[in-house]
Amino acid sequence: MLAEIITIGDEILIGQIVDTNSAWMAEKLNHAGIRVKQISSVSDNREHILAALAEAAARADIILITGGLGPTKDDITKKTLAEYFNVGMVLNDAALENVANIFKKYNRPLLEVNRKQAEVPANCEVILNKNGTAPGMWFNSGGRIYVSMPGVPFEMKYMVEEEVIPKLQAQLKLPVIIHKTILTVGEGESFLAEKIADIEDSLPTHIKLAYLPKLGQVRLRLSADGDDAALLQKEIDLHAAKIIERVRHAVVAEEDIPLEKVVLNLMAKQGLTLSVAESCTGGYISHLITQHAGSSQVFFGGVLSYANQLKQSVLGVKTDTLNDNGAVSEQTVREMVEGALLNFKTDYALAVTGIAGPDGGTPEKPVGTVWIAAANANKTVVKKFTFGNKRLQNIERSAVWAFFMLITLLKEYKK
């Protein structure tokens, strides 16, 4: 069963907003046993939308559409859908009542332009919007299912989870799709591919292996499809175990989670605490950690010590250390991480200092030079890295390696 996702809106095509809806929908559809064939973004243009619908119908069984359902003149999705299906527009009483109740709740007058949001193509089944005024619309036509939903993410997400996917599952016989993701750090995609080539070659035709590289990381994703969920899971687990055993030194997680979440899970399980001392990463490590709910169980905080004065006053880095070795040095990062441990009274600490770029480098310390330290009360590990000359990439790579060093240290010591 194949699906296509069409997002409508000039704001996507000019880069004003990022299309996060498609990625979210694709994940939910895949878990339900529906493969996404293509994702397209089109402008608020009648001809463009009509062409995209016709092309999608030639490729997919299910077409999901988001965007263009607002009350303003540039929102033309409903009228274009009516033209595509060659039907008129009708006022839907349930949709009108939903709109009226929303405006009544906020003590706002119901304008004619808002009333028109309850008008829908005559051949659709309305999906009531519990979080907004624009109704969703379900069409069965020509052996295809079309679903049009608002582009506002929290409105669309409710419809997909509570209405659309349950309805698809009820109407269609869907296969089982199972994924198993292995997160690796520190080895390149080509190295991993060479290392596990024979395992990949031995996979049955219904199991595929994908390499998903990111700065400093590669996710290895095994995907299987079929009718027997238990059998598929058993097969996936068997092949995953072979891969994990072969590249165990690089494996940090056997599930699809971010690297910093691996750290949080490991530390929470052992009742350990963490602090950080950041310089060139500018708080990026702290941001990655604190975006996850429950991070306060592990993460105490830290210091963004960009200036040498803060390295001295907050972390206790010695003046002689800075004068003799500079801020970007093994000696400085070692004193930073040990100062964080001492002053913030945590079980573990991370410290990073470097030259993110694009300027500030010297022949002895070029742009991309970064020193990273991970420490607990018994051991301090320090490593030097020489990345490239791209500032944001250097910051991201620094965070990846800091977490990887911490994970390695966590595995060596148990509280």
Automatic annotation (TrEMBL):
Query: What are the residue boundaries of the MoaB/Mog domain, all occurrences included?
Result: 4-171
Record family assignment: Belongs to the CinA family.
Q: What is this protein called?
A: CinA-like protein
The scientific name of the source species is Mucilaginibacter pankratovii
Read off the lineage from the record.
Bacteria, Pseudomonadati, Bacteroidota, Sphingobacteriia, Sphingobacteriales
